[in-house]
Each structure stands twice: as C-alpha cells, then as structure tokens.
C-alpha cells in the first residue's frame, strides 16, 4: 500500500467493489443490447453519483470543524474514481453507435447528389461534400459530454500531491472548483440522453433525487460555513 492509509485503502476498495457491483447490475439491464452498451450506462451513472458524492464531502466535514483544509482525502479519492469511471463511460460509449466512429457523434455528413458517366450510362451517386456539427438533442448531448470530459481530465490530472504542491493551496483549490461546472455539464448531458433514448422514468427520478441531495448538501455547507465565520472569525 505504500503511503496509502488504511482509511484511504478502505475507500478505494469500497468504490472498486461498488464499480464491480454496478457493472454486474448493468449487465442485467434488459434494454442493453451488448455488454459494452450496458457498461457504458453503468459507468455513466456511477460517475455521476461519485461526482455528486465529492460535493457532499465538504459540507459533511464542516459539521466537525469550523473550516475545511484545502485537500480532503476522501473527496479527492472519490474524485479519482469519478474520473476513471467517467472516462470508461466515454471510451465505451463511443463504441455503441456508428460502428465505433467517434466523429459521427459530433458532426454529420453533408451529402450531395452527383452523376458520373460510367461507360455510356450516367449513374447517380451520393457524395459527402462536407461535414456539419450535430445540433439536435443527440448532438448537443455529445458536445456537452465532450466539454465535461475535458474538465474531468483536468480535475483527474490535479488529483495528486505533486499537483497540490506545484500549484500551492489557493490556486489548486480554485481549479478544483471546476467540479461545480463538471456536475452541471454531466447532469445536462445525462438528462438530454435520457430524452434521446427514452430511458425509463426511474432513471430520471434517480438523477432528480441525486440533484436534490447535492443541492441540499451545498446549502447546508454554506449555512455551516457562515455560522463558523460568526462563531470563529479567525477560522
């Protein structure tokens, strides 16, 4: 384990087991045509749940202390797993449609009619004259997913002691606040895809419930922080 504490090891082991259980449960989803599609769904919802969990660690910690340190190990470890499962969702998800051609998730071909002489005959062909961004709900969901992936990669790169030392506390913490942008992008991406594929209402209720819990946790955190500043002005 090296420098990994027993508590952190327990966290990683617990989330690893949760990931395995999620994949096993996803494999039983009747609408998934392949295991890749099932795993894509499982990794996606697990990553969203873990992102939400990272936003609850701080408010819960404020119940025991007037001010949180810059880095909370539990929040960072959950963030690492959120990043890994999120990237797994992206990689597998790009294999589900269009024969695994990732470009088609974001742009569509502009097809024009063309006629070519073949011997003494003219034959009709369709040729690709260019590409245009996908702007329907499917395309917008994918563009939002791409933006979320970029933010997720950045946060994952920052989730280590070397980055914390290099950036110092305040700058590292400022970049970590991109987690709020990440959860917003992922939520919209998820809801959009639920509409595109007409996912069962239980999925929508689950996302709504998670959103409510995270919002409540953030409001509690703000309240505790303000109370601590009044009680401990130097905190």
Description:
The chain has 235 residues and is mainly α. It has 7 helices and 2 strands. It has one domain (6-231). Strands 1-2 form a two-stranded antiparallel ribbon. The longest helix has 31 residues, at 201-231. It starts with 5 loop residues before the first helix and ends with a helix. The mean pLDDT is 88.
Q: What is the rounded Rg?
A: 22 Å
Total strand segments? 2
- Tally of DSSP helical segments: 7
Uncertain parts: none
Distance between the termini: 34 Å
Question: Percent range for helical residues?
Answer: 55-70%
Question: Which strand order does the major sheet show?
Answer: 1-2
Specify the overall morphology. Answer: elongated
Query: Mean pLDDT, rounded to whole units?
Result: 88
Fill in the keyword field for this structure.
2 strands; 235 residues; mainly alpha; 67% helix; two-stranded antiparallel ribbon; elongated
């Amino acid at each position: 384990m090296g420098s990994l504490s027993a508590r952190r090891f327990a966290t990683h082991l617990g989330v690893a087991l949760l990931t395995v259980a999620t994949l096993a449960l996803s494999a039983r989803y009747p609408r998934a045509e392949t295991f890749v599609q099932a795993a894509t769904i499982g990794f996606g919802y697990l990553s969203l749940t873990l992102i939400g969990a990272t936003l609850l660690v701080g408010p819960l910690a404020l119940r025991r202390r007037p001010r949180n340190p810059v880095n909370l190990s539990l929040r960072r470890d959950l963030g690492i797993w959120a990043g890994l499962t999120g990237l797994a969702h992206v990689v597998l998800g790009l294999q589900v449609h269009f024969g695994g051609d990732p470009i088609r998730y974001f742009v569509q071909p502009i097809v024009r009619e063309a006629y070519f002489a073949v011997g003494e005959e003219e034959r009709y062909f369709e040729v690709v004259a260019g590409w245009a961004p996908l702007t329907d709900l499917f395309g917008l969901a994918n563009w939002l997913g791409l933006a979320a992936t970029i933010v997720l990669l950045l946060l994952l790169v920052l989730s280590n002691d070397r980055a914390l030392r290099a950036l110092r506390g305040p700058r590292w913490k400022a970049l970590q606040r991109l987690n709020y942008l990440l959860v917003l992008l992922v939520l919209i991406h998820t809801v959009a895809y639920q509409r595109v594929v007409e996912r069962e209402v239980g999925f929508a209720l689950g996302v709504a419930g998670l959103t409510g819990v995270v919002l409540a946790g953030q409001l509690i955190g703000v309240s505790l922080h303000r109370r601590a500043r009044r009680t401990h002005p130097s905190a």
